[in-house]
Design brief:
three-stranded antiparallel sheet
């Protein structure tokens, strides 16, 4: 895999899902926003997938739009054995 910004992606086998609304909002400040400087190379390498609405990741995990924090803020809905949970925090490509 080609390096991103001189380094390989932190998760080389990952799908990088980015909400379309966030991409449109934050890409306007690509040169001044450090987070965009980390994400833009993923798009240039064709590793980033823009999403909108509810997007299935697996049969039990779906993205769930929760705009407010940012225009495209997205939570993760987990459904298993008749129960559901929602993860409202941010997911990121940084290993921390």
């Amino acid at each position: 895999m080609e390096p991103v910004g001189g380094q390989a992606p932190n998760f080389p086998k990952a799908r990088f899902l980015v909400p379309q609304d966030d991409w449109e909002f934050f890409s306007k400040m690509a040169n001044t926003n450090p987070q965009m400087q980390q994400v833009t190379p993923l798009q240039n390498l064709g590793l980033m997938e823009l999403i909108s609405g509810e997007t299935p990741i697996t049969s039990e995990v779906t993205t769930y739009p929760t705009p407010g924090h940012t225009p495209g803020h997205t939570s993760i809905l987990i459904s298993s054995n008749g129960q559901r949970a929602i993860v409202t925090g941010d997911f990121a490509h940084h290993p921390a």
